[in-house]
Amino acid sequence: MIRNWVNDMKIDILTLFPEMFEGPLTSSIIKRARDKGLLDINMTNIRDFAYDKHRVVDDYPFGGGAGMVMKPEPIFEAVEFVRRKGGPSTPRVILLCPQGKVFNQEMAKNLVKETHLILICGHYEGIDERVREKLVDEEISIGDFVLTGGEIPAMVLVDSLSRMIPGVLKEEESFLTDSFYDGLLEYPQYTRPREYEGMTVPEILLSGDHEKIRVWRRRMSLKRTLKRRPDLLKKSALAEEDKKLLQMLKDEEA
């Protein structure tokens, strides 16, 4: 199991556009997790904490330059509101922005151990630096490209974490064998029909020999990773069996 306690995970998302989350967070696996009470997701509109007549949340940057910067006051007050509402737990505050560390499976495995996350969706040319200095525990990006805001990265984060919460998927093995979970790409998968347009399922998968199937799948996982993402092999802690299989694959290619 990923964690050995029974608390659900609580995620508070601070955003200027809460309506963007209506589809992704009310469908499929995430909906089931919420319905089971395993995942508690709440939206907080940052504009609700802008108290001027027009509910302005951004302003021109000091020093000049293009674009607008998100003001600190609404974000500070929104985070404080969520913290008070969340009770005695200490939430981990994450800013979704291009400058953050690129999200990967190892980060997901660590974050899913948290019981309460606050996700701040950045926008415009960024946020006032004082938010980073005072409120944020971690900055996360989903890749080396720029989006219009942090909403889509927040959805990615929620989707990635939700499937690892115990009880969300029917079988824990469903995520333990996912690509990247153990540092490798997933092995090839097949289902019915046994033959389609001349393409057949590998015989070993029909053999019923679970040990041979396990070794074949591991070998295919290593082979696919070696071909497509050899960089991952440098970071993976491979078992002795994996090292032998990998050497065999390299010898075959030589």
Q: Would you mind describing this structure in some detail?
A:
The protein has helices at 28-35, 72-85, 105-111, 129-134, 151-162, 173-176, 210-228, 230-235, 240-253; strands spanning 9-15, 39-45, 58-59, 69-70, 92-102, 116-121, 138-141, 195-196, 199-200. Strands 2-1-6-5-7 form a 5-stranded parallel β-sheet, with helices on both faces. The protein is built from 9 helices and 9 strands. The chain folds into 2 domains: 9-162, SPOUT methyltransferase, trefoil knot domain (Alpha/beta knot); 177-253, Orthogonal Bundle (Trp Operon Repressor, Chain A), CATH 1.10.1270.
Break the fold down into its secondary structure elements and pairings:
Elements: E1 9-15, H1 28-35, E2 39-45, E3 58-59, E4 69-70, H2 72-85, E5 92-102, H3 105-111, E6 116-121, H4 129-134, E7 138-141, H5 151-162, H6 173-176, E8 195-196, E9 199-200, H7 210-228, H8 230-235, H9 240-253
Parallel strand pairs: 1-2, 1-6, 5-6, 5-7
Antiparallel strand pairs: 3-4, 8-9
Helix pairs in contact: 7-9
